[in-house]
TrEMBL record:
The keyword Methyltransferase applies. Coiled coil: none annotated. It comes from Candidatus Planktophila vernalis. SUPFAM superfamilies: Homocysteine S-methyltransferase (SSF82282). Belongs to the vitamin-B12 dependent methionine synthase family. One of its GO terms (cellular component) is cytosol. Residues 1-291 form the Hcy-binding domain. GO terms for molecular function: methionine synthase activity; zinc ion binding. This is 5-methyltetrahydrofolate--homocysteine methyltransferase. Binds 1 zinc ion per subunit. Keywords: Cobalt, Metal-binding, Methyltransferase, S-adenosyl-L-methionine, Transferase, Zinc.
């Protein structure tokens, strides 16, 4: 059995926070491909992940959110899919190996394409698309596959099928973003998501991103109540809500707010608590201390 499940049987674990905003602070421009930094500025990616691991994250996330073919193609990088995803996994592996009890989640974001009939993605083409990314992440040494910020259960099914085929035995973690009246953009409710995904054999299921810690509390309650036997719940809340400041959005959630959120998640029975947009290692440290 995976060491991840063994650890989750014992304690509440911490997952890391935002990558995108951290890279923008380090000079990534709007419209730049974050994944390119896995080969061009690996020391920057390593520094961000090291800061999260040092802050107490038991899970760090590879810098591969946009590593599917369609999203890389927006930057003309589709031919470098295997290279960029594998490099992202290798960096995270190196950091995790310096921190006992730290696991690497190979990050899979939405493909950017819609499922048939609204779009062109079918279960077969979707599975092939995600398989390419997952193979590269596995080659780089990830401990788990994280399928995140999802809205459409059909797309998740394609990614899960790919992970089960390409990475048999690796834990699969799925988080959906319930950011539209406590449902995903495609209308999926938390209880529906956790039951549906558990039936596919996924054992770590939850929510990320969203509309702040208050909404995440409600979502967590619904997830925990509907949780089938043997399923672990993960929540990764944004650090508060975005506020327009000048010409950019700043998240208003302080590390103290994240500490309150973490304690509440633990009381509710959530097994992995982390953060998402607007967060930094200071937020992760706060979460780890609260747990
Ligand atoms: Zn987010």
């Amino acid at each position: 059995m995976s060491a991840i499940y063994e650890a989750l049987e014992k304690v509440t674990l911490v997952s890391d926070g935002a990558m995108g905003t951290m890279l923008q602070d380090r000079g990534l421009t709007d419209g730049g491909a974050p994944e390119l930094w896995n080969v061009e500025k690996p020391e920057e990616i390593e520094a961000v992940l090291e800061a999260y691991a040092a802050a107490g994250a038991n899970f760090i996330t590879t810098n591969t959110f946009g590593g599917t073919a369609g999203r890389l193609a927006m930057h003309g990088l589709e031919d470098r899919l295997a290279e960029l995803n594998k490099a992202g996994a290798v960096i995270a592996r190196k950091v995790a190996d310096r921190h006992p009890g730290c696991f690497v989640m190979g990050d899979i974001g939405p493909s950017g394409e819609l499922m048939d009939p609204m779009g062109t993605l079918t279960p077969e083409t979707g599975k092939a698309l995600f398989s390419a990314q997952i193979s590269a992440l596995v080659a780089g040494g990830v401990d788990a596959i994280l399928i995140e910020t999802m809205s459409d259960l059909g797309e998740v099914e394609a990614a899960v099928a790919a992970a089960q085929e390409v990475a048999p035995g690796l834990p699969i973690i799925v988080t959906m973003s319930f950011d539209t009246n406590l449902r995903t953009m495609m209308g999926v409710k938390p209880a529906m998501a956790i039951k549906h995904l558990a039936a596919l054999g996924v054992r770590i299921i939850g929510a990320n991103c969203g509309r702040g810690t208050d909404e995440m509390s409600q979502i967590a309650k619904e997830l925990v109540e509907a949780r089938p036997e043997g399923v672990f719940v993960i929540t990764q809340s944004n650090a508060g809500l975005p506020k327009l400041q000048g010409d950019e959005f700043i998240y208003d959630g302080t590390p103290e707010e994240m500490a309150r959120y973490a304690a509440e998640m633990k009381d509710l029975g959530v097994n992995i608590v982390g953060s998402c947009c607007g967060s930094s290692p200071a937020h992760t440290q706060s979460i780890a201390a609260a747990l």
